[in-house]
Amino acid sequence: MSDQPNEILEAAAAAKAQQDAVARTRDPSRTSRWPMRIIGVGIGSAAVAAAVLFANSNRTRD
Asked: How far apart are CA 21 and CA 34, in angstroms?
């Protein structure tokens, strides 16, 4: 036997507990953005390095 006086209040309490459990979990969409920033920085660094190499490729050595 449960502590709730009837099945409607018991179902409401179960739904509230489920909602609280969902609110405590981490949002997976927020964690997926972190690797994308690293990839963006890596691509940006590679673009800068390629631009420097290209700019220096036409120079003559003394």
From this structure: 25
Q: What distance lies between CA 24 and its chain's CA centroid?
A: 16
Could you please report the per-residue DSSP string of 2-36? -SSSSHHHHHHHHHHHHHHHHHHS--HHHHTHHHH
Distance CA 52, CA 47 (A): 9
- Report the alpha-carbon distance of residue 21 to residue 16 in Å, rounded: 9
Kindly report, residue by residue over 2-17, the tens digit of the pLDDT.
565 788 888 888 899 9
At residue 10, the pLDDT reads 87
